[in-house]
Structure formats: C-alpha cells, structure tokens
Design brief:
The structure holds two protein chains of two kinds. Chain A has two helices and 13 strands. Chain A is mainly beta. Chain A has a single domain, classed as Immunoglobulin-like, CATH 2.60.40.1250. Chain A has a five-stranded antiparallel sheet with strand order 1-7-10-4-2, with no helix packed on it. In chain A, strands 3-13-11-6 form a four-stranded mixed sheet, with no helix packed on it. In chain A, strands 8-9-5-12 form a four-stranded antiparallel sheet, with no helix packed on it. The two termini of chain A are 29 Å apart. By secondary structure, chain B is an alpha/beta fold. Chain B is 33% helix and 15% strand. In chain B, helix 2 packs across helix 4. The longest helix of chain B has 40 residues. Chain B is elongated, with a radius of gyration of 34 Å. In chain B, 29% of the residues are buried. The chains are: A mainly beta, B alpha/beta. At the A-B interface, strand 1, helix 2, strand 6, strand 7 and strand 11 of A face strand 1 and helix 2 of B.
Chain lengths: 163, 259
C-alpha cells in the first residue's frame, strides 16, 4: 500500500463556470453499463478536526478487470478518484492498492497492472464539526478477456458527520 | 578475543596467531580498516536511501493525478451527481447484419479525408479500436498480415479510432490525434487509421466493446461482425466471405490464399 499526498486544489479554473459537476462535463461514454460500483460506506461519523482514514469499497464485476492507478503502458487509462472537496472537509491523500498482474491469453508475456474483485481505497480526511457531503467518481477503464470498454465513472457519495 | 590457556594445542592445525601476539600497529590498522569499511557502507546506504526517496518523490508527483480534488460543491449550485445505472458491460448485438454499411467520411492520421463510399467494389474491414484497448493490439497485427495477404484480391482495411477527443480544446485535440498517430505507427499499421471525431460509431450500433470489426462485401453490405477479440481463423473466414460476395458471379474473384 502506498500513500500519495494530494496536491492542493487541482482543476479549479476549468470547472468554475460550470453548472454541472466536473465529471458530468466530460464527454466520455455515458455512465451506463457500469463495471464498477461503489459499495460503501454511505455515511460515516468522525471526530471533528482529527485525521481519519475512510475505506472506500468498490466492487468490480466478475470477469472484468480495470487498469490499476499505475498501468504499465502509457496509453492505458489509469484508475482515478475525482472528488469535490466541500467547505469544512479536507481530503489529505488517498491510498491506492498496488495492481495485480494480468495477461491476455494471446499475449501471455505482456503483463497488465489491474484491479479485480473488490477494490478498497483509503482516503485520509479531516472534517470540521458539522455534516458534509463528499461527492466524487471513480474513473476507470474496464476490460474482460476479449473486449475493452470506454472509460466510465462510478459515482461516490458519502455523508460525513463530524461530531 | 583470547584463547583459553587450558585449551590443548591441536597439532594437526596450523598455528593461528593469537590476538595478544599482534603488534599495536597491526591492531590499529585493522581498526581503521573496519571503521573505513563501516563508514563506506553507511555512505553507500545513505546514497541508496537518498536515491530511493528521490525516485519515490518523482513517482509521487506523477501519481498525484490519480486523485483529483475539486473546489467546494457550493460553487456548483444545483448540481447533482451522475445517476448510477447498474448493469454489465456487455457487447451489443449487431444491428447491421445484411444491411448496407453506413457511409462515413473521416480524416486519417495524416489529415487526409477518407470516405467508405470510395471503397465500393472492394471488400472492406472496418475495425473500431482504441489506443487503450489491449485486445485490439492483439488483433491489429493479424489484420496487418491479412491485409498484406488479401490486398491483391481487393481487401481494404479501415481502422477507426474510438479514443476520446476533446473537441473544445484545439491544443488537447491536436495532442490526442498525435497520440493516436503515434500509437498506430508503433503498431506498424499498414492501412488508413481514421479518427472518429463525429461519432460514426453511432450508426454502427453505438460501438461499446472494442475491438468491434465489420466485414463489408464488395457491394457495401455487412456480411459479418465480430465483437471483441475474435479468433484469427474466424477473421480470415470473414474476409473470404466479404471478398467472395457482393459481385456478379462472372466478375467475382476467387477468395483465399495469397495471390
């Protein structure tokens, strides 16, 4: 497990005038036929002002795999967590697990770095007292043994209660 | 370290000089050597550790893009998250079997306009693929070889890239097109690679699974489709089918094998 410190406020300028959430402005494939689903938690209670680690659980459909956050080939699309950071809720970093090796039957020597089954991310958050809504999407690109599908976004929403 | 005075000397063993027998100068040299080696090891470990941390920092910078933080939601009044629409990624069935392949005109990676209509009289493979699609990269070398093998009999192949394009940002669009061209060059693709900037996949059933490959006969009708990575023999059989149909029997050219 590696911890990745998050750089401050990315993409602020490009979404400021938008009335949609940022990922909705993306013209990639519509979010039908999801291969990944956010499982839980839907709501968490944390101590205000205290650093807390939240586990985000996702399920990848059986028979499918998605690229890890560090695919081995440049052209492959990494899994990303895109989040809105509301007032009073700081997201310090998110840990992505390492990918597993996977090879297509026709290319046994070319190992891909993928996630399968259940994916758990660890988000380090710190909330001011009150109720907060953490919204985001997991952007991923899924394949099965013979086909690949356009990048999609699995929505994530967590009520964070700090008291 | 001192050997015990009670230990009987072993006559068969060579005489080992005892530490007490060493001169002070030898002992100092030994100590200095040990210290130098220890310092060297420490320095080496320090350098290695520094290099490792530098590598990790570099990697970290690269990976910060894995988490993208956005400004507070209150700047996005009225916004709602995208609705989750559960369901599996499943290949769609081909709605075009036996029908005329929808015409399209797209630019290839060199900027040249290519129209499907211009290929009438030829058998055409339309291969929808993307640079991020691993199975496509298995199939493409087969198509290249089959293209070489059957070109003389009238086979043409058009690769249609389904990579996402940012049509609102010219700089990004240019880079995306260049990435597709680079990827095609890296795969040594020996047929036109078209950039789908006008959603020509839609009349082809809204391509979802990649690769999806349409086999069009000489009259322009779709005679076969494969969704996902097909067996090479199946692809070749479909090529023969496309080459051998769609023309009056008298003008039909024999399909199969290298001419």
């Amino acid at each position: 497990m590696r911890r990745f410190i998050v750089a401050a406020a990315l993409l602020a300028a490009c979404i400021a005038p938008a009335q949609k959430l940022p990922w909705q402005a993306d013209e990639s494939a519509p979010d039908t036929h999801q291969s990944v689903h956010f499982l839980y938690p839907e709501q968490i209670t944390v101590a205000p002002g205290k650093d807390t680690v939240v586990e985000l659980h996702f399920k990848i459909n059986p028979g499918m795999h998605i690229n890890s956050h560090t695919p081995r080939e440049k052209s492959f699309i990494p899994t990303q967590l895109i989040v809105v950071e509301p007032d009073g809720l700081k997201i310090g970093s998110v840990d992505f697990p390492p990918g597993s090796d996977y090879a297509l039957a026709a290319m046994p020597n070319d190992k891909l770095s993928v996630y399968t089954g259940e994916l758990v991310l660890h988000a380090h958050i710190n909330a001011r007292p009150g109720d907060h809504l953490l919204e985001g999407v997991l952007r991923y690109q899924a394949c099965d043994t013979n086909s690949c599908y356009p990048p999609r976004k699995a929505p994530v929403a967590i009520d964070v209660i700090a008291r | 370290m001192t050997m015990s005075a009670q230990t009987p000397p072993d006559a068969a063993s060579p005489q080992v000089p005892q530490v007490n027998d060493r001169k002070p100068g030898n002992r100092n040299t030994l100590v200095i050597a040990v210290v130098v080696v220890a310092l060297g090891l420490m320095a080496w470990a320090g350098i290695k550790n520094y290099q490792r941390r530098k590598q990790e920092e570099a990697k970290l910078k690269e990976l910060q893009a894995m988490v993208v933080k956005l400004p507070p939601a209150d700047a996005l009044t009225g916004a709602t998250p995208p609705a989750s629409q559960p369901g599996d990624d499943t290949p769609s069935t081909n709605p075009l079997a036996g029908k005329t392949a929808p015409n399209f005109t797209l630019k290839d990676t060199t900027g040249k306009k290519v129209s499907l209509a211009a290929y009438k009289g030829k058998a055409v493979i339309i291969d929808f693929w993307a640079t991020w699609c691993a199975p496509c990269k298995v199939e493409i070398p087969w198509l290249e070889k089959l293209h070489d093998q059957y070109a003389a009999q009238g086979l043409e192949i058009l690769g249609v890239s389904e990579d996402d394009l940012d049509l609102d940002d010219q700089a990004k669009l240019l880079k995306e097109k260049q990435d597709i061209a680079n990827s095609a060059a890296g795969l040594h693709i020996n047929y036109p690679v078209l950039i789908d900037d006008s959603n020509v996949a839609k009349p082809y059933g809204g391509i979802d699974a990649l690769p999806t490959t349409f086999f069009v006969d000489r009259s322009g009708k779709v005679v076969a489709t494969t969704v996902g990575l097909a067996d090479r023999d199946e692809i070749e059989a479909n090529i023969k089918k496309a080459l051998g149909s769609g023309v009056p029997q008298a003008n039909a050219q024999p399909a199969g094998g290298q001419s």
